[in-house]
Inverse folding.
């Protein structure tokens, strides 16, 4: 009988999780900090190697292009070099022209948003990035709320949207009249519709 008790207690006894597993948080599915640090250091090392290799590749490309141009010059192919440089210059000039147009249009649209002469005189001499900041600041501080509709908690109650007749309601609050006119009340009859 005593043997049954000891066997039974051994079978029902729960072993606590190992201290190694709980220390590394592996049992919870978390990554141990030491492994995270190891992988992160490895990633940073690869990133540095990649940057080094990229700079070497860029230098090799530049050296190759320089030597190619030198070889063309030695061979007396100045016309080929001039054509290549002209093509590069044409490409760059198109990009510059597009950017200049963008800056001009952006500046004029920003200046149009300014209403006061003092703001305009200040903004005229600013570079585009500072002009954008200045205009956003001026427009933010000087803009007043223009919403003339009634606040939700001050909505009129009663018949005709708080007005004395449908006509007055439609004349003084056309938006509210249209919204209410499209809705159906509890009895299934549209509000504000007369036959």
């Amino acid at each position: 009988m005593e043997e049954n008790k000891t066997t039974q207690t051994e079978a029902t006894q729960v072993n606590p999780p190992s201290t190694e597993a709980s220390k590394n948080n592996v049992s919870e599915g978390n990554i141990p900090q030491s492994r995270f640090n190891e992988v992160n250091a490895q990633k940073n090392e690869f990133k540095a190697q990649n940057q080094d290799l990229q700079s070497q590749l860029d230098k090799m490309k530049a050296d190759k292009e320089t030597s190619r141009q030198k070889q063309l010059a030695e061979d007396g192919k100045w016309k080929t070099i001039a054509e290549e440089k002209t093509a590069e210059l044409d490409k760059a000039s198109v990009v510059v022209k597009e950017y200049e147009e963008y800056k001009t249009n952006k500046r004029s649209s920003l200046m149009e948003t300014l209403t006061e002469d003092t703001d305009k005189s200040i903004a005229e001499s600013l570079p585009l990035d500072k002009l954008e900041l200045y205009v956003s600041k001026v427009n933010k501080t000087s803009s007043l709320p223009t919403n003339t509709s009634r606040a939700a908690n001050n909505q009129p109650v009663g018949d005709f949207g708080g007005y004395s007749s449908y006509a007055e309601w439609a004349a003084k609050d056309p938006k509210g009249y249209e919204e209410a006119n499209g809705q159906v009340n509890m009895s299934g009859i549209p509000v504000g519709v007369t036959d």
